[in-house]
Design a protein that fits this description.
Distance between the termini: 24 Å
CATH class of one domain: Alpha Beta
Number of strands: 12
Strand content: 15-25%
CATH architecture of one domain: Roll
Shape: flat
CATH topology of one domain: Ubiquitin-like (UB roll)
Bound molecules: guanosine-5'-diphosphate
Helix content: 40-55%
Largest sheet: 6 strands, mixed
């Protein structure tokens, strides 16, 4: 599943946010495949369509699409030189699909800022510099190994060239995501600055409803996406039942929690979408890349489904709701039989036919 690594300076609210994330686990405990690890927090992608479908099918349970968050890498200036928490903490983040950088925006004289003042722009530069340095170190170690492996033909020259080009960009101070280097051949290195970034501004409650301040922070990171949240409120929300949580959110001018926003923006940043399956046992959302074709979508359920794919019966969510049942959708010609070239649409309700 989709995994997002969390980084940030110390004392910016990472633990507070992560605590809210891990308490959220109870929701995820429903997943048959869930192996819950202490350094993983899960947020379900909010999707009101699932409730509606579960009603139509009288499903016993609902399984939304999960977004996992791993670890907390606290990074200080000089971390890449081993002064701070450093590389050990970056190991898990290397495997993440994207990085969420938590940036302090809240003011609180009781909470020390490691750099002496609350300055989101300067904090982001510190973190970005450390991530660039960490990638340079990874490449400087990898390049001599690649040179040997190229001699023995264990790797192709594209790997060494990719690594050298990436290092040159980083030496100029360019994060790999902003460079033109093709890092596909060196994907296994898990270079941090090549990953998509999401910025999480942990701000005072008053800022949440301050349009000018919001716009200012969003502009700071554009074209990357920003989520503004108050980590303290997030950790309170987790302990409330849905009605009380909605009330607290409304009192801060929000209609969605910061964690929910983070899940949605994670999906959008990584170009993902969901399709839906529904029946009496469960209604479930499945994660696929935007543009995935029907067999690939089937493969997310089971690899055998992809191999043995025959066809898919597809009803759009809206058509299913309008007709009220699969049988009615069929009799109104709203159930389409699609083949292996069908490009999945967000919210397709699907039943696959396959050979095993
Ligand atoms: P970490 O070092 O990044 O993991 O930061 P923590 O989550 O441990 O937070 C550091 C301190 O800041 C703790 O005392 C938190 O209670 C406090 N803190 C975290 N988020 C907020 C916030 O949104 N507002 C305020 N006022 N304090 C916060």
């Amino acid at each position: 599943a989709l995994t997002i690594g969390i980084v940030g300076l110390p004392n910016v609210g990472k633990s507070t946010l992560f605590n809210a994330l891990t308490k959220n686990q109870v929701l995820a405990a429903n997943y048959p495949f869930a192996t819950i690890e202490p350094n993983v927090g899960v947020v379900n992608l909010p999707d009101p369509r699932l409730e509606t479908l579960a009603g139509i099918f009288s499903s016993e349970r609902i399984l939304p699409a999960p977004v996992s968050f791993v670890d907390i890498a606290g990074i200080v200036r000089g971390a890449s030189e081993g002064e701070g928490l450093g590389n050990k903490f970056l190991a898990n983040i290397r495997e993440a699909d994207a990085i969420a950088q938590v940036v302090r925006g809240f003011t609180d004289d009781d909470v020390v800022h490691v750099e002496g003042k609350v300055d989101p722009k300067s904090d982001m530069e510190t973190i970005n510099t450390e991530l660039i340095l960490a990638d340079m170190e990874t490449l400087e170690k990898a390049i001599p190994r690649f040179e040997k492996e190229l001699k023995t033909k264990k790797i192709g020259s594209d790997v060494l060239v990719g690594a050298q080009e990436a290092l040159a960009e980083l030496q100029k101070g360019t994060p790999l995501s902003a460079s033109k280097v093709d890092i596909t051949p060196i994907k296994e290195l898990g270079l941090l600055t090549a990953k998509p970034f999401i910025y999480v501004f942990n701000v005072d409650e008053a800022v949440l409803t301050d349009a000018a301040k919001r716009a200012e922070l969003e502009a700071l990171v554009a074209p990357a996406q920003a989520v503004l949240l108050d980590a303290k409120i997030e950790s309170e929300l987790i302990d409330l039942d849905p009605a009380d949580a909605a009330e607290l959110l409304a009192s801060t001018g929000q209609d969605e929690s910061g964690l929910d926003q983070l899940a949605r923006i994670g999906f959008a940043t990584l170009g993902l979408q969901t399709y839906l399956t529904a029946g009496p046992k469960e209604t479930r959302a499945w994660t696929i890349p935007t543009g995935a074709k029907a067999p690939q979508a089937a493969g997310v359920i089971h690899t055998d489904f992809e191999r043995g794919f025959i066809k898919a019966e597809v009803i759009s969510f809206d058509d299913l709701v309008a007709t009220g049942s699969i049988a009615e959708a069929r009799s109104h010609g709203k159930a389409r039989i699609e083949g292996k070239d069908y490009v999945m649409q967000d919210g397709d309700v699907v039943e696959f036919r396959f050979n095993v």
